[in-house]
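Escalated from tier 1: beta-D-galactopyranose holo job.
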Amino acid sequence: MQRTLGTCYYPEHWPEAIWAEDARRMVDAGLTWVRIGEFAWSRLEPTPGDLRFDWLDRAIEVLGQAGLKVVLGTPTATPPRWMADKHPEMFAVDAEGRPRGFGSRRHYCFSHAGYLEESRRIVRLMAERYGRNAHVAAWQTDNEYGCHDTTISYSDAARVAFQDWLRGQFDGDIAALNTAWGNIFWSMEYNRFDQIGLPNLTVTEPNPAHGLAFRRFSSDQVVRYNRAQVDILRAYTSVPIAHNYMGRITDFDHYKVGDDLEIASWDSYPLGFLEDRVGADADHQRAYARQGDPDFQAFHHDLYRAVGKGRWWVMEQQPGPVNWAPYNPAPLPGMVRLWSWEAFAHGAEAVCYFRWRQAPFAQEQMHAGLLRPDSKDAPGMGEAQQVAEELAETPDVQPWAAPVALIFDYDAEWAWATQPHGAGLSYFSLVFEHYKALRRAGLSVDILPPTARNFSDRKLVLAPGLMHLRQDLKAALAASNAQVLHGPRSGARDGHFSIPDPLPPALPGLDVTVSRVQSLRPDMPVPLRGGGAVTGYLEELEGATAAFLETDQGAPVAVQAGHQSYCAGWLDSAGLDRLVHQLCKAAGVPIQTMPAGVRRRCTASEEFWFNHTDRPVECSPGTLPPAGVLRVPRSDRTG
Ligand code: GAL
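Tier 2 regenerated the structure:
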């Protein structure tokens, strides 16, 4: 498949007289795609019902005539000011009960019926007008669902919709809900569904069953909202529909939104993420301040490849300093190229740079584009052009099913967030730390949803932290030929957040029971015999299954029987390296320890090597300069 580049453009920000020149320069730079429209509602409909599509008609025509393919965004992430007068209750409400205000974006509540109707209306108008436009080659719904903490809303509309959702979940049987949630505890029993409030503003913590149910409901509201847009678009267009997800936004189930779309895409801001959401210590942040974390982007590439069932893009790629992180350094020269090639190596169909020209006004005036505000090339432009030239030479990257897979489950993320049991313990971090250990071992990883049942391509499957481990997944993993890792906390709760009996993990083929659990202060690691430590979380195990990792006091930490293992602790990186090496040995997967900051990704026929450091590094295929990329034929067919 031909891999392509693009950019994000806002014709409504610029005089119409420069659109044609902008389009020509995009084509000259080697760009194929231009995404437009996703925040333009106030110009499409300045007052209710006053529709002004003429400028967008002309913008699409100018861009298309220049040879660009348009990705057209629906503008629903930015309801205009008049919408607030028309629907004063449309705002999302935060956990403190305060409505979000107008003056930025994403201020709507997913449950508000009036706003859903307005969204349907504007999407239908756009679909009718552009659904068959030859220049519109893809659509994007909305913009970054959930960004700025906007999935969960504690509004009246959400409360009523939640009650309905619960009625459906429990077939209208309030006694069944009381039993499933354990509402006899603290006299929390309900007589009717319409008595159930939202799990905020309680005196102390709400029932975790209530909290988890509300998270599941909130996720379903995003799926429903997106589907409402997709259903309309589908009636008018046959081109692919995408959404642009964000990094480490986990409040809704992206797999379920992805089921309704042809393409998953995400917005990659490596330097912003390092400061804002990787969760690394100060030394790591300093070392990678201009490069970004070596694994964070790759993790999301692999995750969104799964969300898109193979079809995915980077819809927004940082091309220079951003504006929104605590500190916003410029990328090391070469990193814009590296980030682009890393995305292609992981299977991206397209990489689009955000944004074409830096805006001289409003919130993002400190955010670089490919052009400066005065329209001269910014430093990122040269690297984008270099990628375009390299793609013209070798456009194809062959997809590959990696023998090593890692399961990521949004429901487990919500369960851990509902009951972390120790400060700072998050499922995302647990999974990401396993991912990093696999990558330090030079392995390529496929991320799988918890609905995966076919593991025939896999030699090793890691499934850490699945608090609600569904029986059919457990059985499919047990029946597979892969080495499988469970734990910690796997199967620790049933579907309604009660402790199951028999006690977890209750894995077929393993005689192991979690008899007690504890969380640990950051300053009380438990050393492992032979190196590494348990940090944060440690379970005590009973049973006859043999341990291959133990505490220095001889308590079992990781046990293995046949092709299944259970790890009872949150391991530090040295412990995780030992765990991964043991599992790979058992699985017959060769590892190749990477130099610090160097990462490898295999495709069907090639190996890509990436140097995320600011100095040259020797590695087996050759010398990698700072921010260097090496593309070589596969040396083996396994890792
Ligand atoms: C993204 C967003 C863009 C822009 C960008 C700035 O999250 O989709 O509209 O705000 O961040 O980095």
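The chain has three domains: 4-149+222-393, 156-210, 404-587.
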